[in-house]
Design a protein that fits this description.
- This protein has 15 helices and no strands.
- The protein is an all-alpha fold.
- It has one domain.
- It is globular, with a radius of gyration of 21 Å.
């Protein structure tokens, strides 16, 4: 690619990032403008701080469980759980400041490549791990609809909230359209199609192992339950008068909405859907916005762990990987399920920039 082409691509990325920041600011600004702070009931005290502390601890546990799920998806030939956990926390750090979770996944991909994993295997493991999480998310959302069958209808009728609701709908539409266009362009890319042709070995080995599939599915439900408990801990700390079972619907719905690549880290979208879903329970707009922002604050605090790890060692997890392989019995460090070309490409992967 020529320098001019590279500069144009960087300009487009910068423009799109600026648009997302502007959308996030507009959504948050619209909700603050519509909020009646005289109806706010949240009191920031010791109980709130305790709720935030418990939420952060739960989030750390949940991210580690996610790393274990990733390890199950990859198989025993890949970096150990601690190495993958390190990459997961680094990815979580980047996802707090980049659109959706794409930035975090890119960091995980680069780190896994530097450990010697082929690009196709690394990329497909992240996609498969994300799909497992999405499936668990949908199951919890369905359970929430069953427990509160009228909640989805009440949320859809939230147009009485005014301007921010219409902005959310428009923002969701723009995000969905952008995702669709981006997916079409990606599928038409020959390099991407070539990469996908080299990813089937991981999928076949994973789906061919009942033990790995069952373990990954159970871990996916535990991870999603962990995210729900994080929100519940914050709600209890804020003394929000919301039935705990509502979180079965609320957390998956908000999480799905925040995945839309229309703002930075779901800011504005997450808080807006929090307002919509909790409005039927009498939660003031100001309280709902604060609830969403405190969750984001917990995410940033936990992401700080990944940020510190990244500053210390970058994305290189070979030290942990080599230590795990050295502790394993001879011949057990590599699995028959490894990619045949993984060892060949390992040298090239390790030459990546930290």
């Amino acid at each position: 690619m020529t320098a001019t082409g590279s500069e144009k691509r960087n300009d487009r990325k910068g423009l799109w990032l600026g648009v997302r920041i502007a959308v996030a600011a507009a959504l948050l600004g619209g909700m603050v403008w519509a909020a009646d702070f005289s109806r706010a009931t949240i009191v920031l005290d010791g109980a709130t701080l305790l709720g935030v502390l418990v939420a952060c601890v739960l989030l750390v546990i949940t991210l580690h469980l996610s790393a274990i799920r990733w390890h199950v998806v990859l198989g025993s030939a890949e970096p150990g759980v601690m190495a993958l956990s390190r990459l997961y926390f680094i990815g979580w750090f980047f996802s707090q400041f980049l659109p959706s979770s794409v930035g975090g996944d890119a960091a995980r991909l680069i780190g896994l490549r530097q450990s010697g994993t082929t690009l196709g295997r690394a990329g497909s493991s992240i996609v498969l791990e994300r799909l497992l999480g999405l499936a668990a998310l949908v199951v919890f959302l369905g359970a929430g609809v069953v427990v509160f069958p009228g909640l989805a209808r009440l949320t859809a009728e939230g147009s009485s909230l005014g301007l921010p609701t219409s902005w959310l709908v428009a923002g969701a539409g723009v995000g969905a359209l952008g995702t669709l266009v981006g997916s079409v362009l990606l599928v038409r890319n020959e390099r991407f199609r070539s990469l996908m042709r080299n990813t089937f070995s991981l999928w076949q080995s994973f789906l061919g192992s009942r033990e790995r599939v069952v373990s990954a599915v159970i871990l996916s439900f535990l991870v999603q339950a962990g995210y729900i408990l994080v929100w519940v801990a914050i709600a209890l700390g804020l003394r929000l008068d919301v039935p705990l079972a509502v979180h079965l619907f609320f957390v998956p719905a908000v999480s799905l909405a925040a995945l839309l690549p229309v703002t930075v880290s779901g800011l504005g979208v997450r808080e807006g859907f929090t307002v919509l879903i909790l409005a039927p329970f009498g939660v003031a707009v100001a309280d709902a916005v604060a609830y969403g922002l405190i969750f984001y604050g917990c995410s940033v605090l936990v992401g700080g762990i990944g940020g510190l790890v990244f500053l210390r060692s970058g994305l290189d997890v070979r030290e942990l990987t080599e230590a795990a392989e050295g502790a394993a019995p001879a011949g057990a460090a590599r699995s028959p399920e490894s990619d045949p070309g993984e060892a060949k490409s390992g040298g090239r992967a390790r030459a990546g920039v930290r």
